[in-house]
Amino acid sequence: LGAPQRYVQGRNATKEIGKYLTDCNNILVIGGKRGIAAIQQDFENSCNQLKINTHFELFQGECCEEEINRISTLVQKMKFNGICGCGGGKSIDTAKCVASINNIKCFILPGIAATDAPCSALSVIYTKEGVFQRVEFFSKSPDLVLMDTQVIVKSPVRTLVSGMGDALATYFEAEQAFLSDSMNCLNGKSTLTGQIIAKACYQTLLQYGMQAKISNEAQAITKQFEAIVEANTLLSGLGFESGGLCAAHAIHNGFTAIKETHSMLHGEKVAFGLLVQLVLQNTPDQIFQEVLKFCKAVNLPTNLRQLGVEKVTDEQLMLVAQIACAQGSSIHNHSFNVDELQVVDAIKLADLMGQ
User: Does the annotation mark 181 as catalytic?
Assistant: First the structure.
């Protein structure tokens, strides 16, 4: 079971971040323009009170080898002993890579609740063009994950919904990995705690998801909004890492090779990947319809057209399937064998059922 050393969530939580930045006096903060702007004043004020030096660096947009090397060089040159990734998932993943390479503290301040990446001890590496390359695993989880809901509630509603799409797959993937006795993302077997957390994640989505979406639209920090921020980040983060991944994320990885999907967010592709997984594992129609109904209610994509793919060829679907079924892919964590033709056919059926 893996987890960050400390998880903090609440309105204006950034104002107290200094007290959580243990053993650091020189911190690099990376993020996009919006991500940095949302937290910079409160971050600097809190750190200044404790005489912690901070430097803010604009993230170049992709968690790729080139950007990881650029930030690592900056860390070494300016002798930072802590790095903070703020904003979106790719800047966060880059911060985790740099922290691991340079053996420094890692602090995470998401500006959105769009993925379950913040709490995990892994990063997804892409090419500089945005095509999935590999998953990098680390020996420890972040030292701090801080979710300032005053910042997150001002983020686009689409990002919160995307986080729900990512979290929606957690229970179903963890359950399949458990049934097949597969290894989880920590290179161990799933714990009962991990399975319970994954199930709680799914139940929380169904109970509060729609109300949280409306709260986000109104920029209102309600209990329902707080619950979904926690589900998207902490419950899903612990659930997927300690429970395990299966087809939904493998299908997502495959779709990164289709140019038309590059404008879609991670969780949006995972949500459709989950529908494909449910077809692959011959899920009872009642459960499939429950998931489909939720996706439609919160406006997650349920077919290829909604993923941006107006016309798809068999060659494109085979490319998706080949990446999804590559050696070492999480799709092989199912209790049954999955091949490329099965994936292609499952995509076609999920697409029609999601119309």
Answer: no
Element containing residue 89 per DSSP (H, E)? helix 89-102
148 is catalytic: no
Specify the length of the chain in residues: 355
Question: Rounded to whole angstroms, what are the CA distances from 120 to 41, 162, 243, 317?
Answer: 27, 18, 12, 30
Looking at residue 153, its amino acid is V
Which helix (H) or strand (E) segment holds residue 172: the answer is: helix 157-179
Bridge-based pairing state of the strands 122-126 and 132-137: antiparallel
- Is the distance from CB of 59 to CB of 33 less than 8 angstroms? no
Mind listing the domains of the chain with CATH numbers?
Answer: 7-152 (3.40.50.1970), 157-353 (1.20.1090.10)
Q: Which of 93, 116, 148, 166 is catalytic?
A: 166
Mark whether 334 is an active-site residue: no
16, 146 Cβ separation under 8 angstroms:
no
CA–CA distance, 104 with 51 (Å, rounded to integer): 19
Q: Which of 228, 85, 79, 103 is nearest to 166 (CA)?
A: 228
Is the pTM higher than 0.85? The answer reads yes
Pairing of strands 144-148, 7-10: parallel
pLDDT confidence tier of residue 93, bands split at 50, 70 and 90: very high
Q: What is the mean pLDDT of residues 244-259?
A: 94
Alpha helices in 180-331 (DSSP H): 192-217, 223-230, 236-243, 247-255, 266-280, 285-298, 314-324
Query: Over 90: is that where the pLDDT of 1 sits?
Result: no
Q: Which of 116, 252, 334, 351 is catalytic?
A: 252
* Contacting residues for 168 by C-beta, under 8 A, at least 6 apart: 202, 205, 270, 271, 274, 291, 294, 295, 300
Catalytic residue among 266, 285, 314, 334: 266
Choice among 116, 143, 148, 249 that is catalytic = 249
Cβ proximity of 297 and 271 under 8 Å? no
Q: Clarify whether 55 is annotated catalytic.
A: no
